[in-house]
Amino acid sequence: MRVGLFITCLVDVMRPEIAEAAVALLEAAGCSVEVPMAQTCCGQPGYNAGDTASARALARKFLAEFERFDHVVVPSGSCGGMIRTHYPALFADDPDLRTRIDAVAAKTWELTAFLHDVVGIRSLPGRFEGELTYHDSCSGLRELGVQKQPRALIGLRPGVTLVEMKDARACCGFGGTFAVKYGDISTAIVDEKIDRIKASGAPCVVLGDLGCMLNIEGRLRRNGDLETRVLHVAQVLAGDAVPGAPASVEAAVPAAARAAAAAPGPAPATGPATAAGTETAAGRAGTADAATPTDTRPPPESAAAAIPKER
């Protein structure tokens, strides 16, 4: 089965280890994985901001790069929802192109939905163990119906205990540009989500969208929590099948905590913590609440640099 992996621009820039984990999982499921090197953004930021022209241009670019594959897999319910749910409406006035867009949208899958619903993976590569709770990201849940799939896959992992938090389906407050336009409301929502995470007693929260990850982890660090782990579900499912990746919740020490342990004096109570020499996500992306990678390895220049090239 020939699979095109749409990395997403956020994963490529901020957490390439998620793309590496996705490749490990897809290959373990028997897929031939290819990564079109010219891929960029799905167009969702422009679409959400009302810039239909740029969203259409990026949708056409996506179509040209991915329609040749048997399936397209995305480690993000948000980007997957944009492609599968919103792309067709962008071309309602172009019947010929709409037919092609419909076809590629129909074979585009969020990562856990593809692994569970399409290929039916029954065993996972690598090792990972520990206790965690799960946050249902809004787009994956409400646009793609992703809820049971990640939990079923986590259930395949020996040594992992899933503790459900209260209101796991409730928004984390990110919502893309919503967090920028309505910062106070966004902060109130993410603070409530963090209360739910802590009340679960789990030392790690797992989810399927990097935007939500950055929002939750950024707020945790700004509040002085340098210990709670925030991981993408692909990292838990792939475990240490990715060389150098942690094999347990305990080993997935946040970069902020490593930096605080290495630095003299007490850790700051507020502000985005960062590993020595590492630029914060807020500095790179211009957002208020962001966090630094949990991975211990130096990041590659891009996700595409670390995973199989287009064949």
Account of the protein in words:
The protein has 311 residues and is an alpha/beta fold. The protein folds into two domains: 2-117; 125-303, no CATH class. The protein is 47% helix and 10% strand. It has 16 helices and eight strands. It has helices spanning 9-14, 16-28, 44-48, 52-66, 77-90, 95-106, 111-118, 138-144, 148-154, 178-181, 183-200, 210-222, 233-238, 255-262, 281-285, 303-306; strands at 2-5, 32-34, 71-74, 108-110, 130-134, 160-162, 204-207, 229-232. Strands 2-1-3-4 form a four-stranded parallel β-sheet, with helices on both faces. A four-stranded parallel β-sheet has the order 6-5-7-8. Helix 12 (210-222) links the parallel strand 7 and strand 8 (229-232). Helix 5 crosses helix 8 (138-144) and helix 7 (111-118) crosses helix 9 (148-154). The radius of gyration is 19 Å and the shape is globular. Residues 266-304 have low confidence and may be disordered.
- Give the overall form: globular
Order of helices and strands: EHHEHHEHHEHEHHEHHEHEHHHH
* Number of helical segments with 4 or more residues: 16
Distance between the termini: 14 Å
Strand order of the largest sheet: 2-1-3-4
Number of spatially distinct domains: 2
Q: What structural class should be given to the helix and strand makeup?
A: alpha/beta
Rounded to the nearest angstrom, the radius of gyration is 19 Å
Q: Which spans have pLDDT < 50 for at least 5 consecutive residues?
A: 266-304
Number of strands: 8
Tell me the strand percentage band: 5-15%
The main β sheet shows up as: 4 strands, parallel
> Helicity level, as a percent range?
40-55%
- Look at the structure and give the mean pLDDT: 86
